[in-house]
Write a structure and sequence with these properties.
InterPro entries: Metallopeptidase_M50B (IPR052348). The protein has 211 residues and is mostly helical. It contains 8 helices and 2 strands; from the N terminus they run H-H-H-E-H-E-H-H-H-H.
Length: 211
């Protein structure tokens, strides 16, 4: 197995930056309730805080998910690069204005010969990264709560919720989602990852984290 060197082209960096900003704006509007009232509220209360919060939580969760796919693909000798889907990014912003959000910022495209196990590990890397990020955001939530910082506590809560959701959702075994590829490789690995991720996500929703 030949291992390629991890690198990012200027086009890829541009696509990652555009996707990050678009997701930050879209999720800021979504969490403000969507619609014109949300936009007016954000503008009157200050754009920086809500957008920064979304960039640090939803934006980081989505983009590191994709970067993880690239890192593992390159580890297995693939030529891999992230490409933003500008149409879907536009849809994310528009849907947030309507009070819901549909976010699919793009995907990592790779080529080269792979075993089923390698395909499975590349797919699993994204959701696994989201679980790792959820673990990182948990102490942020605790610290923010203890020191009485609403911004830090909300960042921890929202980062935890979004990343758990991304991990569980992307492991659904349907269509182009990662879960279908992981299930095709190993039913044991799929079940061992998906079931706890789903239960944790449901628990986070019940607790009202992120809102």
């Amino acid at each position: 197995m030949s291992v390629s060197r991890l690198s990012f082209s200027s086009k890829e960096i541009q696509d990652l930056a555009v996707a990050w900003v678009a997701l930050g704006v879209a999720f800021a509007i979504f969490f403000a309730g969507g619609g014109q009232r949300a936009v007016v509220g954000i503008l009157e209360g200050g754009v920086f805080g809500p957008v920064l919060l979304s960039l640090l939580t939803a934006g980081v969760g989505f983009l590191l998910h994709e970067v993880a796919h690239k890192v593992v693909a390159v580890r297995y000798g693939q030529v891999a690069e992230f490409r933003a889907d500008y149409g879907m990014l536009f849809l994310a912003v528009v849907s947030s204005l309507a009070g819901f959000i549909f976010a699919a910022p793009g995907a990592v495209h790779h080529r080269g010969r792979l075993t089923r196990r390698e395909h499975g590990l590349i797919a699993l890397a994204g959701p696994a990264t989201n679980v790792a990020l959820a673990v990182v955001f948990l102490p942020v939530l605790v610290v923010g709560t203890l020191v009485g910082s609403d911004f830090v506590a909300l960042a921890g809560s929202r980062g935890l919720m979004i990343n758990l959701f991304l991990a569980a959702f992307n492991m659904l075994p349907f269509g182009p989602l990662d879960g279908k590829t992981v299930l095709g490789w190993s039913k044991t690995v799929f079940a061992a990852f998906f079931v706890p991720a789903l239960l944790l996500t449901v628990g986070a929703f019940v607790l009202g984290l992120g809102f």
